[in-house]
Amino acid sequence: MPEDRVDDKRRTRYRYGTWVVIAASMAAWLATLDYNGPFFDEGIYVTAGIRTLEGLAYTDRFLTWFGGSLAWPVLAGVGFRVGGLTGTRAVAAVVTVVGLGAFAQAVRNLFGEQSGFWATLALGLNGAFLSLARLGVYDTLALSGIAASLWAITEVDRRDHRGWLFVSAAAYTVAVSAKYPMGVMALPLLGTLVFLRKERASTDVLLFLFVAGGLGLSVFLPLREQVAEFFSFRLQQRPDFGVPVRLIAITIVYLSLIPFILAVAGWVMVSG
């Protein structure tokens, strides 16, 4: 059998394997959504979502609670109306599996089918990711937005079409609106864009920032009074919600150390 045919079959197996991992993750999450009662944050999002659907979110001043938008609370409220707390968590599971699929496609575009399969399997089995996928909290929408933004950036290079930059910027804006600290993810996203597009990257980066900035302002300006109050409170009061900065730093190091070591080792091997 010709070698290229063998390679095609191997790539096909890895491609199907990736989608099996995604489908199995989805099935596992949906089967375990009613494992406990409501988490405190889930109650906040569901309440805000239901009040938003009733047209009372602005008068209730819920945007002084959420620095971005009420996108996730609305999704949480819709899920709750359909299926109670399990419905909200089902929405979170669907959003998360979309993010897992976008992540898989991004890795596939960057490194090939085999890397896409193993990376997707590793993320699908990650304990923190598994726990998050079964909770109706806004982190799921934020992570999936970043994954979709990264995937769209890889499509810009693969298809050589800047229309994908608009998709990437929109997904990034959704992620930041869901959870504003996700704004720092602009650095790896734009770094990937620069790495892939090289001499065309300067125009691409400016276009991405222009679109993302415009979409962000479209949310901020009409609601600036309540959104600004949120940021003013956070900057002046600096609440830690019982989690000190030292613990956050330790958690970041703990969760990032192994991926960082693997990334550096891989870079050294490729460079050598």
Jot down its keywords.
single chain; 272 residues; 11 helices; mainly alpha; 0% strand
List strands and helices in order, with pairings:
Layout: H1 3-31, H2 40-53, H3 71-111, H4 113-124, H5 127-133, H6 139-159, H7 163-178, H8 186-197, H9 201-220, H10 224-237, H11 245-271
Helix pairs in contact: 1-3, 1-4, 2-3, 3-4, 3-6, 6-7, 6-8, 7-9, 8-9
Rg, Å, rounded: 20 Å
Mean pLDDT: 85
- Intertermini distance: 33 Å
Largest sheet data: none
What is the strand tally?
0
Shape field:
globular
Tell me the series of helices and strands, N- to C-terminal: HHHHHHHHHHH
Question: Ranges with pLDDT <50 over ≥5 residues?
Answer: none
Helix fraction by DSSP (H/I, runs of at least 4): over 70%
Tally of separate helices = 11
Question: Which percent range describes the beta-strand content?
Answer: under 5%
Which structural category do the helix and sheet elements fall into?
mainly alpha
Q: How would you concisely characterize the structure shown here?
A:
The chain has 272 residues and is mainly α. Helices cover 78% and strands 0% of the residues. 34% of the residues are buried.
Fold and architecture overview:
By secondary structure, this protein is an all-alpha fold. The chain has helices at residues 3-31, 40-53, 71-111, 113-124, 127-133, 139-159, 163-178, 186-197, 201-220, 224-237, 245-271. Helix 7 crosses helix 9.
